[in-house]
Structure formats: structure tokens, C-alpha cells
Amino acid sequence: MKVIMESIDVHIGGVKILNNISLNVSKGEVVGLIGRNGAGKTTTLNTIMGLVRPSKGSIYLEIDGSKTDLRRLKPYEIARLGITMAPQGRYIFPDLTVLENLEVAYGGSPPEDVLKDIFTYFPELGKIIDRKGIHLSGGEQQMLAIARALVRNPKIILLDEPLEGLAPKIVVSVREIIRRIKAEGIGILITESGNIKRIQDLVDRVYGIDRGEIIYSGDVESIMKDLDVRRRIWGF
Amino acid sequence: MDINLFIVQLFNALFFASILFLISSGLSLIYGIMKILNLAHGALYMVGAYITFTVVILWLGLSWYSMVIAYIASIAVVASLGIYIERILLKPLYNKPQDLQLLLTFALIFILDDIVKMIWGAQYRAFPTIPGWSLSVGEYQIPVYFIATILIALGVALLLHWFFTKTIYGKMIRAISYSLETSAILGINTDKLFALSFALGAGLAGLAGGVAVPLYTASPGMGGDAIVLSFAVIVIGGMGSILGAFVGSLIVGLSRVFMAIIYPVFEIALIYIIMAIILMFRPTGLFGREMRERR
Q1: Domain of A172?
Q2: ipTM greater than 0.85, yes or no?
Q3: Measured between CB atoms, which of A74, A94, A105 is closest to B178?
């Protein structure tokens, strides 16, 4: 199972936001999308999820050689195909409890074994299932955002800046969760704008993005050695 | 004011508040979830009134039994009309500027008014009498119909509370009202829930029209007055909040009826003064929360 973007252009309000983006992520691998704020990372993820429609190019889901055109599908149809997303800012439903946030993502009351799996990943959430989203800490919100994306048993999950704004101790927990998700064979596309070292040991390969263009594709060690890419992404 | 008159006016006010709640809860529901200000909500209320009039007066005859059937018919017809409006007319405009949705719902007022005139004529359609008997309070009378209407409104409030807190569709609708896009990327069928929400809001308007018609004569354009006061209710109570619609209806209903006795020329002005004061101190209304973008 593989999500493939080919030569994608995206225009928003007449402005070209993504320019000829091509990338792919397969089940079982962790792929980083690195770029500074405003580079086009979130728009790339939103385009895969069908929240933003491309003006050119193709996006499809390949399963055993057969391709499904994602451009024709609505976001909820894409999610039901097995691609889900934990958005930047988490967007936890504030009036719903932890359990209700999971219920709406599952589409009903999740069976015991599904909840057990989720709370094995996130034992902290298991202790606060009746707490409303609005009363969760930043770390708890991030864990719930990832848990919601996992509850439908996705094959590929898009994590938009999952480590952003978290305390160092929580970053360690979330990184551990990402490792465990990968170990389950789920493909992950993860974005990072600040500190590449936070995801360096998590990813199998990375894309560098700047001003809506992919400027690097390869392993994570090499991106740090490419002076032009470093300058464009980190400014040094 | 003697105590008997006070009791009678209290029931008048609660009856009026009940009708307002049934209208404004639907209006608030549609706005809270879909961010659509449905100007045609009053016209849907009018259709509900005509359906109940037709079933009770033209078909079955006046009885409690026929009233119940008429309410169900009003809800079903107006909710179905709501689904058609949402799927066929509103859906193509979701990604367009909001002005277009406003214009469309504004145009629907006139379209529905004219359809009503074509089917039922332009004349007023009145019930010969209020259904049921009356209770004596001293020299005054309280129609049992008022009490039944208050109980219907309370029942609807409890049913809505149950729906939004206990059922998965209710919880999903609450999720959508917070963030449409986040709901969609989690796999929630936002299309289906939009249609369901609009149908539910429209059905409430239909029920409101059915409940109101024995007292407020059915006529083309009758939705105009109702919608203006309903906007005041949801601004006071808070856009998108059913509890806000409930409390806002009580505030508007009680203040209007009692002011009509105490100082009639100030009857309507008081409502808008209350609204202005609440807006000054709580711009989101008493129970509203800041509306997020459609993300």
C-alpha cells in the first residue's frame, strides 16, 4: 500500500502554494517532510487528505498494483480507505471527552479490543477517558490527536508537526509512540519545521520542501550535509 | 397585578417562549453546525403551520389525535423539504462566498411564500378554536393547549440533549460544529451529517409552525415576525447553543409578554435592549462559544 503524489500543483486564492510536488509513502515506512514554516508542508498533507484540491498532477493510493485516484474522493472517503491525519494544532473536539473523541473517529463505540490497543499505545489516555478535550494538556491533546487517527486502524497516517510545542518529556513519549506505530507496519508521513534532530532517528528517508517545491529527497544524514538545502530550510 | 393575572400571563409567556424555542433551536442548530444563517427558516415554520392546518382542519377534524398526526406530518414534510434544500440548493454553494448562501435563503423566503399561495391561497387560514379545554384561574382561563405546548418544548429540549450527548450521530454533529475539516479527515461522513442537521433544524421549524398555528393564523409571510425574534433569541443565548436557545427564548418570551402589560410601547424595544447589553458584555451570547473557521 502506497500513497503517491505526482507533479502536484496547488493554487489557493490565485497564489501557487505547491509547485510540481512529487512524493510517496508506503505502508511500514516513516517519511519526513522537512521545511520551514509556510514552506507548504501542511498544504501537502491537506492535499493528500482531499482538503485542498490540486490544480495539476495526480494523487493515488496503490494497493497490490491497483490504483485509486484520491483526487476524486472526499476527505472522509480517503480516511475510510485507510489514510488518516493528526492535524497541526491537534483540533481536539473540546466539548467531547477523550472517549467521545475516539468514538466519533471510530464511527461508533469502539469494541473493547480496539480501545485496549489504543490505551496500550497511550496508557495516559486510558486514565482520563471521561475528561473533556478542553481540559487536556498539550501533551494529552497530541496523544489523543494521534489516537483518533489510529482508531480506524489506518494503513498510512499523516502527522503534521506532532512534536511542536510539547514539553521535552512529552516529546520523548510521542517519539516512542511513533516508533511503535511504525513497528505495527503503519506508514507515516511526518512533518517537522524546527529541529530535524527530533525526528532524525525516526525516519527512513526525508523530503525537503521550500516555497512549495521539493528541493531534496533522500536519506536524513545527507540532507544535513547539503549546504544549499540546509540554507534554504534552516537558513545556515 | 393580581396573582391570577400573573399566573395566566406567565403561561402566556411560557407558551410564547416554547414556540420561540422550537423555531430558534432549529435555526441555531443549522448555524452552529453548518455556519449557514438560514433566512428561510421562518418560511419553513410557515410551511409547518399550513401542513398542520391542512391535516387537522381540512382532513381529519379538530382533536388531540389529529393534532399529533399533524405534528408528525409537519415535521416529516418540512424535514424532507430541508433535505432537498440542503442537498440541491445549498450544497453547491458550500465553497462559495457566504453572501451567496444568504442570498439563496433570502430568495427561498419568497419562493416558499409563493408556493404556499399557489397551494392554499393568499387568505388567512385560522383554526376555529384552540384545541382542548381551559383551566380556570380565578376569572381567567389558561388553555390546556398552552400547557401541552410547554411540555412539547420541554420534551424537545430533553430529546435534543439526549441526542447530542448520548448518540453517536449527535456526538459527530458536535464534532463537525467545532471543526468540519478535522471531522472529515477522521472519516466522519460530513455530507450525511450536514443533510441530517439541516433536516433536524427544518423539522423543528415545521413542528414550531404546527404547534403555533392554532393561535397564530397561518398566512403567507407569517415566518417574518417569527424569524426576527428568533434571531434575537439566538444572539442572546449564543449562536449554535441549544441551551442558549432555551434560555434566550425564556428571556424574550417573558420580557415581551410582561412588558406588554407593564409598559406596552416598550414591549419590543426591551428585547433589543437586552440583546444589546448581552452583546456588549458577551459578544458570543450567554452560552455561545467563539465560532471557529470551517477547519
Answers
A1: 2-234
A2: yes
A3: A94
